[in-house]
Amino acid sequence: MPQGRTPKRRIPLRKRLLVRLLFVSALIAVCSVAATAWLAVTTTTSALKEEQGQDLAADNSILTQLSGYAATHPDWSGARHTVRVLAARTGRRIALTTADRTLVADSAPRGTPLPPRPAATVDPLRTDTYTESGAQLSGIDPRVVGPYRLRGKDRTKLDALAARRKRCYGRYGLQTTVVRAANGRPMVTAPDGTDSSGYGATVCEDGQLNIPSPTERKALDALSDLARPCLEQAGTDLGGRLFLSFDPSGKDPFGGGYLVTKYAKLGKGASARAAQHCILAARRIQLEPYVAPAAELFLGIGDQNPSRFDMSPANKAKVVGTAGLVLAVTVAVTAVVAVRLVRPLRALTEAAGAPPELHVRVPVTTRDETGILAEAFNDLTGRRERLEAQRKAMVSDIAHELRSPLTNIRGWLEVVRDGVVDPDPALLDSLHEEALVLQRIIDDLQDLAAVDAGTLHLHREPLRAGDLLEQAAAAHRVAADGAGVALGVEADPAAWLDADPVRMRQVLGNLVSNALRHTPAGGAVTLAARREGDDLVLTVTDTGAGIAPEDLPHVFDRFWRAEKSRSRRTGGSGLGLPIVRHLVAAHGGTAEAASEPGAGAVFTLRLPAGRQPREEP
Fold first, then answer.
1. Spatial contact of 299 and 92, defined as CB atoms under 8 Å apart
2. Which of 26, 129, 183, 524 could form a disulfide with 64 if both were Cys (CB 3.0 to 4.6 A apart)?
3. Does CATH place domain 458-608 in 3.30.565.10?
4. Which of 472, 575, 552 is nearest to 516 (CA)?
């Protein structure tokens, strides 16, 4: 487990904030549902009454749209989707059957019985529900166009004629619009019913737009042939062919909306009425293949029928009172829960805002997430307190480390300046040694600052591990001989690494210096290198007194020393091992320390192994 990290603990399910919040939400929901149910029981009438009558606007809209479907489709095979959409939009049950009650389409589930009587008959050849909204007129639905529908070149030609007439009216200051009949024929009309003759625009009415197209002419000829037997039987002379007139008002005694078919020279009286009857019958025969057969329309209440509530003043008072009570209970429960949740968070906020030198801790009163947060905060406060103590000790150590050599240098320089002693070589060597100590401390601090700032640069190159160890040992051979410590090297010849040679010599130098300081005379310090898989392992082993178990986790901390004395022999500056750890980490490796008291210490560096470079021929 990492040093100083609070272990993750499992919180009992009933203690978790999420569970508690869900419980409060469920309690509020139960109260709300119970209050709503009570209000529904006490404010509704003793029994739900079926609504009397029908919504005429909705029913007429349903009939109009179903009649439009029948007018534009030869059968009812695709009407189920239209029926479902209308039922969902109006909230009514809609069913269509044939005359013998064979079901065609139904929005209700299968097996639901039909209402006792049909609401209307859907027959676009005999009922017009389109011309006047909300009315059912006798006649043919104008949306039934059948063989009169314009297509292709006929429609393009008429569109061009309509556009030309509209431009002509525009030149005379008459604002017009182009409307399109159900069969696709365009007509130029004035929205306000303005008479074109008042503007002198009669020249624009050349009559070409009213000439039947080949499609319409063909359909009229077929209608004439269908009407002739009836007309002859009624004793009415045909006296000509049927022709077209176009009435934007849609008042067509024969049905068809803008498309009006008339008989030339019908006259008046019984003869004219007989001719109209014959033509209307012929049109129905002509259009019958293009429309769906007549169907019975049944309308029901449906699933969205609203219930009626008796909202008397007493019931209104009950609604307001119950709603207020539920609101009060909800606010009270929420306030209690919120206070319990916010109290530890407020304590954490106050502790975080306290002066840092006080190191305030918060009481742990719960075992849920806030309790764990409080423990983590206390642990963080403890670590901050320890870091503050280390910082103060570091400042003291830096001041001591710099003061001693500076005091020596200043004292000797002053006595030399005063002429008390002569600057002989021994004195100069001593002053030079003190200056080197200062330089070493400053260099170490600079290296740590570069690591902290991320500005440390490495110049890697292939290195033989044995050569690197030999160089480190050679640099400290004199110091080892002077201390009576044997300094040896054990390296695998095949061990290579890619590293910065200067920085790696600094790393090994710090480890060897540390080992020599803590190894008594007659002991040994050994530098070793070996390869383990993809890693290169470097070790520095000494036979000194070792490191206590409680001190081992801190050996790489800055300015930390197991020996608190300021002795040059064992003290050191406390910066060497932290520099080792950071430089090794910059190379992508790790540094570890292991020791047994009385058996020496082993510092292990684990770095990515390198490849031996090829020799050039």
1. yes
2. 129
3. yes
4. 472
- What does the pLDDT look like over 12-49, one tens digit per residue? 666 666 667 667 777 777 777 777 766 666 655 433 33
pLDDT tens string 338-367: 777 777 777 777 787 788 777 778 887 777
Residue environment code for 529-566, b if the CB has 16+ CB neighbours within 10 A, otherwise e: bebeeeebbbbbbbbbbbbeeebbeebbbbbbbeeeee
6-14 contacts at long range (C-beta below 8 A, 24 or more positions apart): 6/372, 6/375, 6/376, 6/379, 9/372, 11/367, 11/368, 11/369, 11/372, 12/367
Q: Which residues pair with 490 in a beta bridge?
A: 528
SS3 content of the chain, % helix, strand, coil (to 5): 50, 15, 35
**486-491/524-532 β-pairing:** parallel
**Look-up of token digits 């006792």:** 116
Q: What is the pLDDT of residue 223?
A: 85
Q: What values do phi and psi take at 578, rounded to 5? A: -60, -35
Q: Please report, for the chain, the start and end positions of each structural domain, with discontinuous segments joined by +.
A: 56-144+293-300, 146-290, 458-608
Decide: 93 and 299 in contact? Cβ < 8 Å: yes
Residues 129, 157 contacting (CB under 8 angstroms): no
Residues 6+ apart with CB under 8 A from 415: 421
Q: Copy the structure tokens of residue 373.
A: 């947060």
DSSP line for 255-291? S-TTEEEEETT--STHHHHHHHHHHHHHHHHHHGGGS
Q: What percent of the chain has pLDDT over 70?
A: 78
Pairing verdict, β 127-128 and 137-138: antiparallel
Within 354-424, residue ranges assigned H as helices are 369-417
Instruction: Check: CB of residue 23 under 8 Å from CB of residue 31.
Output: no
Supply the DSSP symbol for 552: G
**CB within 8 A of 214, min separation 6: which ones?**
154
pLDDT at position 381 is: 84
Residue 541 β-bridge partners: 526, 602
SS (H, E, C) 316-339: HHHHHHHHHHHHHHHHHHHHHHHH
Backbone angles phi, psi at 93, to 5 degrees: -85, 130
DSSP class of residue 608 equals: E
What is the greatest pairwise CA distance in the chain?
Answer: 161
